[in-house]
């Protein structure tokens, strides 16, 4: 088990950057990064981008200096290599998630305005905010957890149509398609439904602070909560890194 870092050679934002990786697990990588002051906001799905001025300190802390080619080989050998499309920002990878059907799945959480194809989209989730910056949460009677309005697509729907319908059913808030903006998506392996492996992650802000009320039997309570309260209720959920990153909460807080 080792933490590896390549030389700072990748230019961006007026400086050079290195890649910090584990040859074993993301848990090991996150623990090392947190212990040595590397912000979680620098995580890119299978590695941390670290600025050139941090390189010597990371090596002194135990990261093994290797070439960039060795970094890529180590990720492939460990099964941690993440391929992404242009414009996607990986936030986290969840390994062995059980959605309640007994099938372990790996999930990549990605920020992006890339519109997921309707034929691959099986569900949508909405970070709904009011004019004061509070977030809507609903209580799932099936899963017995708090979370943002969300649900599976119905025949003929794309991600935005699903989001409009689910928000109306679970909170009573009526949105137009133009109110919604794509923030990213969750990619599941294996797919939760035949040929459908994507959950779209969207956001919308409504004027004022309308009363919340649901019309379906899958939710039983609804509330506007501050980002801090949202974190208290939901930080243990697998999807939380996407919301935490967007709202700059916890380890994703901006310096």
From TrEMBL:
<feature type="domain" description="Nudix hydrolase">
    <location>
        <begin position="119"/>
        <end position="255"/>
    </location>
</feature>
<dbReference type="InterPro" id="IPR025109">
    <property type="entry name" value="DUF4031"/>
</dbReference>
<dbReference type="InterPro" id="IPR015797">
    <property type="entry name" value="NUDIX_hydrolase-like_dom_sf"/>
</dbReference>
<dbReference type="Pfam" id="PF00293">
    <property type="entry name" value="NUDIX"/>
</dbReference>
<keyword id="KW-0460">Magnesium</keyword>
<dbReference type="InterPro" id="IPR020084">
    <property type="entry name" value="NUDIX_hydrolase_CS"/>
</dbReference>
<protein>
    <recommendedName>
        <fullName>Nudix hydrolase domain-containing protein</fullName>
    </recommendedName>
</protein>
<dbReference type="InterPro" id="IPR000086">
    <property type="entry name" value="NUDIX_hydrolase_dom"/>
</dbReference>
<keyword id="KW-0378">Hydrolase</keyword>
<dbReference type="Pfam" id="PF13223">
    <property type="entry name" value="DUF4031"/>
</dbReference>
């Amino acid at each position: 088990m080792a933490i590896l870092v390549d030389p700072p050679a990748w230019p961006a934002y007026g400086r050079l950057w290195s890649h910090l990786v584990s040859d074993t697990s993301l848990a090991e990588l996150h623990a090392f990064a947190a212990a040595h002051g590397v912000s979680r906001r620098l995580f890119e799905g299978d590695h941390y981008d670290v600025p050139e001025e941090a390189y010597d300190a990371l090596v002194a802390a135990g990261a093994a200096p290797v070439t960039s080619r060795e970094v890529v080989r180590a990720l492939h050998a460990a099964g941690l290599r993440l391929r992404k499309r242009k414009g996607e920002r990986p936030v986290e990878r969840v390994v062995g998630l059980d959605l309640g059907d007994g099938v372990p799945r790996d999930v990549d959480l990605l920020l992006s305005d890339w519109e997921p194809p309707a034929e691959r989209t099986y569900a949508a989730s909405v970070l709904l905010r009011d004019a004061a910056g509070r977030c809507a949460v609903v209580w799932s009677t099936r899963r017995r957890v708090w979370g943002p309005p969300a649900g599976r697509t119905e025949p003929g729907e794309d991600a935005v149509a699903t989001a409009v319908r689910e928000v109306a059913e679970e909170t009573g808030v009526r949105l137009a398609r133009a109110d919604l903006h794509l923030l990213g998506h969750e990619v599941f392996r294996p797919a939760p439904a035949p040929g459908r492996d994507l959950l779209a992650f969207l956001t919308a802000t409504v004027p004022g602070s309308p009363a919340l009320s649901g019309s379906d039997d899958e939710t039983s309570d609804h509330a506007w909560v501050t980002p801090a309260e949202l974190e208290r209720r939901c930080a243990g959920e697998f999807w939380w890194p996407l919301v935490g990153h967007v709202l700059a909460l916890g380890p994703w807080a901006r310096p």
